[in-house]
Amino acid sequence: MRGTITGLVLCALAAGACSAGDDVAAGARAQCAFGGELLDCPDAQRTSEGACWRMVDCGAIAINAGEMNQFRFDWDRCVDGLDSLTRDRRTLVINCIAASSCDQLRMDGSPDNPNTDQNYCLVLGDR
């Protein structure tokens, strides 16, 4: 009887150790957020929209800065900015964003008022 109780306690402890706890993280901000191996991180879609969604998912830019902040860099301005680049520069910037980890994409002031001069991918497209 004593062995059965000990076995049940050990099984319960083992099951608890394997369950999802507070250390579980998911999404673009998780595994790739702080220098995760780039080979393990899924790339963003190779479009202007996909690159800008990756910036949003990483907390680098806001989805919509709102009417009061209409000149701040948000998803719409990101897409418009990438679409206004020449094809070669747009491809370069999109590929850079797609392959970057989240910590590489964030800037001072992210996501509400990002300093885009600090994002090396966006600087690549500077005219």
Which series of helices and strands comes N to C?
HHHHHH
Count of folded domains = 1
What does the largest sheet look like? none
Q: Structural class given helices, strands, pairing?
A: mainly alpha
Helix fraction?
40-55%
Question: Notable features of this structure?
Answer:
127 residues; mainly alpha; 46% helix
What is the element layout, followed by pairings?
Elements: H1 2-18, H2 48-57, H3 75-83, H4 87-99, H5 102-105, H6 120-124
Helix pairs in contact: 2-3, 2-4
Write up this protein.
The protein has 127 residues and is mainly alpha-helical. The chain has one domain (26-124). The protein has 6 helices and no strands. Helix 2 (48-57) packs antiparallel against helix 3 and helix 2 packs parallel to helix 4. The longest helix has 17 residues, at 2-18. It is globular and about 35 Å long. The protein starts with a helix and ends with a helix. Mean pLDDT is 75; it is low at 6-31 and 33-39.
